[in-house]
Target: Ectonucleoside triphosphate diphosphohydrolase 1
Amino acid sequence: MGAVALITTAVVQNKPLPKNMKYGIVLDAGSSHTSVYIYEWPAEKENDTGVVQQIDACKVDGNGISSYAHDPPVAGLSLQKCMDKAREVIPEQQQRETPVYLGATAGMRLLRLNNATLADEVLSSVGSTLRSYPFEFQGARIITGQEEGAYGWITINYLLGNFLENSGWLGRLKQSATFGALDLGGASTQITFVSKKEIESQENSLHFRLYGKSYDVYTHSYLCYGKDQALRRQIAYTIPDANNSTILDPCFNSGYRRNTSTKDLYSSPCIAQQRISTAPSNIEIKGTGNYQLCKQKVEMIFNKTQCTYSQCSFNGIFQPNLEGEFGAFSAYYFVMDFLKLTNEKISLERVKEAVKTHCSRPWEEVLKEFPKIKEKYLSEYCFSGTYILSLLENGFGFNSENWKDISFLGKIKGSDAGWTLGYMLNLTNMIPAELPYSPPLSHGSYIGLMVFFSILLVFIILTCWLSLRKPKCLQKGII
Ligand SMILES: O=c1[nH]cnc2c1ncn2[C@@H]1O[C@H](COP(=O)(O)OP(=O)(O)O)[C@@H](O)[C@H]1O
Model:
């Protein structure tokens, strides 16, 4: 039985798993791109004491899975490049035994909200491409925000070795030491951590039993709070102030210009409440590069006024006190890595200073220094850095004290931090609920101990026998 008790979406198509699996492939269909991850099983599968490792990864060119909706042949071709690579990496005799899973995240959750039929068509179109490969295709589906949070938490703690460490007799006595997971995508963001405090809202509560230890986990996925959707919302707030279709935006470096179609901007369900009918069809964004003003605008998307629980993060969502250490990955890592802020010793105040300095740099200077970085990413680092700070501080409640508890993680032991590994471990039943039985001593030590105790016993018997005979000898001597 799968160990992830509350995640009920085991094998997508109820297909039995291949018997001699040695490899597994997971496709992460995110909002901005799709990635293909190839994993290899440890040699000792039954014991499950080895770690499943990522042996390769490939980013599909293009604009995410929803591009299948506009141009299936072109989208199919770019996916094929990564799947062809998987065929090269996995030995031919293992390919039929290799399960392939596709999980689509928040970008597809949004598309489904807009047009459920189109979302289904996209999944079946991707499914047809994947079925044309010799692997064992297990299905394509949109995973829930709760799953995305939970699988991300499982991935990082599995790779960090925390579950096994907690499963020994000493680990079971201690408070469980796990890392909380902070995942920032393009369309949604997830926060997941073990909480000692009661989780007041059922939908945020998960219970896991992994390697013989129970975990009560808090999780929440905020749809529309991924960094691309947050940027859209931030821009949409300024549209009513547009002057001749031009808006001044403090979240872009000064000198930066971008043209945006309002039809495209408003097409997202995340902007539903900010649409205005009088908006010009095209707007020109002009950066002014001001961290403080950018922060003020970004904070507008966090509603801190309503809370029906004892405490909330924002938008009336329950969140218990932050506990323990956290691993922040995906876009958290991409952005903080670019800004050179991943070192744990850098204080929150210094991080703010660094983001402020970056925002104040003229665009021309930034462009000259980083000519090889994609312009879309480069132009958005001021916004992204500011957003990350607001989300962590204003949204989730991190502060100068517990900032040191956040580690920005790209890869852990060679595998990317993200939800995909946890998803595959669950669907292939690779994490047992109970610790596999392992005898306390090896066979050799057992035999050795038996021999030792037998010799000891013979020695004790001999000593007793000799000491009982002694008085008689002495008596003889006296006579
Ligand atoms: O190298 C990079 N630098 C900056 N941002 C990046 C880089 N690579 C990906 N991103 C961004 O990270 C975010 C995560 O993308 P993803 O497609 O996984 O989102 P999703 O899982 O929410 O759908 C997106 O905003 C994407 O644009």
